Amino acid sequence: MTEETPGFEEKPDVPSGATPEGAESKAAPQEGAAPAGDAAAQIAGLTAQLDQVRKALEERTADLQRLQAEFQNYRRRVERDRITVKEIAIANLLTELLPVIDDIGRAREHGELVGGFKSVAESLETVAAKMGLQAFGKEGEPFDPTIHEALMHSYAPDVTETTCVAILQPGYRIGERTIRPARVAVAEPQPGAQSVKAEEATEAAGDDKESGGPDEG
């Protein structure tokens, strides 16, 4: 029989190249950890993706802002065109009514605007005024070829510039738009009157100077 040494237990033989079980259990968690270089590469990739997303967002924001600006311009253009079309339609309508309004004015001058005709005429004039129709043209105002049409011409010694001396037919406008010029008779200064007045003014100034001088003697 073989004698056993007390206090010692036999252990299985372990090959020289094998790893103990305890060493394997400690080394196992380290096998799943990513190296430091791989983590840096992942961060760089995510940063690049983030930059691309930001760039795409900036481009889409710029596109949206451009579309909003174009839409606002379109709305303003449509509104402006709508107002222009409305003004043209009103101007065309009132232009067709001008002969009737002229007849009403002549009837008023001759005292024929009475009875039911007067009421209808005044109603028509009120509606035309609400639509923006304004009459212009007064005697004594300077002649302006942009708003006046001269049908008669004469000379007058008491005017210093071409002046409207009679309103043959009033002009009409809608806002700043003239739909018919005022038809007028004009008078210009008498030929030579300006030179005569200038000579008289010079002589008067000389007389005043002589009379205002000191007495001799």
UniProtKB/TrEMBL annotation:
Keyword list, A-Z: Chaperone, Coiled coil, Cytoplasm, Stress response
Subcellular location: Cytoplasm
Residue spans of biased composition, Low complexity class: 27-40
Region (Disordered): 1-40, 186-217
Compositional bias segments (type: Basic and acidic residues): 206-217
Origin: domain of life: Bacteria
Pfam family, one: GrpE
Complexes and interactors: Homodimer.
Name recorded for this polypeptide: Protein GrpE
Protein species of origin: Streptomyces shaanxiensis
